[in-house]
Amino acid sequence: MTPQFTDRVSRVSPSATLAISNKASQLEADGVDVVDLSVGEPDFDTPQNIKDAATEAMEAGNTGYTPTSGIPQLKEAIAAKLADDGIPCETENVMVTPGGKQALFEVFQTLIQEGDEVVLLDPAWVSYEAMVKIAGGDLKRVDTAAHDFRLEPALADLEETVSDDTTILVVNSPGNPHGIVYSDEALEAVRDLAVEHDFMVISDEIYKEITYDGIEMTSLGSLDGMEDRTITVNGFSKAYAMTGWRLGYFAAPEEITSEAGKIHGHSVSCAVNFVQHAGVEALQNTDDAVAEMADAFEDRRDMLLAEFADRGVDVTKPEGAFYMMLPVADDDQAWCERAIDEAHVATVPGSAFGTPGYARVSYANSKERLQEAVSRLDEHDLL
Ligand SMILES: Cc1ncc(COP(=O)(O)O)c(C=O)c1O
């Protein structure tokens, strides 16, 4: 029979980042040495204390379903972390999910009606667009690329774009794909607009623990007036090198968490039991390992910026996360194809993030491999 697909699924395309990674894997399977700078995951192993906590929890028999919204110990640890970040939070506000992605998906499914307006700050992580479209929302986009990816200079555009029809604004700082940390002034301006036009803000803080040069990122939910209109999303993938464990969460006003719990309960039931126990260990005893990984990323950032600068390429300096936006040809898609086909360097076209003319470079790779990538791009006249 010929399957009939829903509008929901027909509205979206497969993830551009995964498409490139798949191509890189295919070339590697054919014996080609690819430098893969397309990946969105730390190249470190999960810290040992976290693995031990998972093993112990499994051995102790924590292998069944857990309460839908997560085990109490983890919800308490998350609420304590968010309270430390200045976000008013009780365990009732927290939903533990299999990854930050699932947290975002549930929030969009809970709050977006067909035709509701959602505003993104471009360049924006690829899955926001897909999730909003699946939920039936209409996207409006504000470009920050012309302003070195900073939000203050784009505030006039944001002010013009949001209105009383806006349902949700998505803020991601430090941002994927550019690594910029939004200033307190910019976040306060976002707060003023949210209050004036009465919309919710999703603050995706998944890179919050990975910042450089002593910069600390203010959580949007900690600002006066944002306590009942912020949904804070976070996860364990990036800060704790736990991508494959699939653990994340969101914290929201209690009635939102409770409504989203229906979607959660009827889809995933709960996050993996022993993984949640490992999450408690990650939050409570892993500060040193997180700082070490962030230092390593900072070191690589500096090296990569210097390598590009030596070749006359000026790249906006990331302040967090582990990505940078390399300015390339107008046709960024064609540039990325040449980069992988000719130089065997995998990157992601900026157009996948709503910003053509750039390639996203992930520096979650060793310094040697990063240097190798730059040399190859140079040799193939791609810089
Ligand atoms: C900005 C951003 N938010 C959320 C996620 C989701 O991560 P996970 O589902 O692994 O927690 C990612 C992953 O790449 C991301 O870059």
Structure explained in plain terms:
It is a single chain. With 383 residues, the chain is of the alpha/beta class. The protein has 2 domains: 7-46 and 288-379, Aspartate Aminotransferase, domain 1 (Alpha-Beta Complex); 64-285, Aspartate Aminotransferase, domain 2. The chain is built from 13 helices and 12 strands. It has helices at residues 7-10, 16-29, 48-59, 72-84, 100-111, 126-135, 155-161, 184-197, 254-267, 273-285, 287-310, 332-341, 367-379, and strands at residues 35-36, 94-97, 117-122, 138-143, 166-172, 200-204, 230-235, 248-251, 323-327, 345-346, 348-349, 358-362. It has a 7-stranded mixed beta sheet with strand order 2-8-7-6-5-3-4, with helices on both faces. It has a 3-stranded antiparallel beta sheet with strand order 9-12-11. Strands 1-10 form a two-stranded parallel sheet. Strand 3 (117-122), helix 6 and strand 4 (138-143) form a beta-alpha-beta unit. Bound molecules: pyridoxal-5'-phosphate (PLP). Pyridoxal-5'-phosphate binds next to helix 5. Pyridoxal-5'-phosphate is lined by residues 40, 99-101, 125, 172, 176, 204, 206, 235, 237, 243, 248.
Please report the distance between the alpha carbons of the first and last residues: 50 Å
Strand order of the biggest β-sheet: 2-8-7-6-5-3-4
CATH top level of the largest domain is Alpha Beta
Please compute the radius of gyration using only Cα atoms.
21 Å
Shape: globular
- When the domains are counted, the total is 2
Portion of residues in helices?
40-55%
Which architecture of the largest domain does the CATH hierarchy give at level 2? 3-Layer(aba) Sandwich
Task: Count helical runs.
Answer: 13
> How many β-strand runs?
12
Low-confidence stretches: none
Stated plainly, the CATH topology of the largest domain is called Aspartate Aminotransferase, domain 2
Strand residue percentage? 5-15%
Q: What small-molecule ligands were found?
A: pyridoxal-5'-phosphate
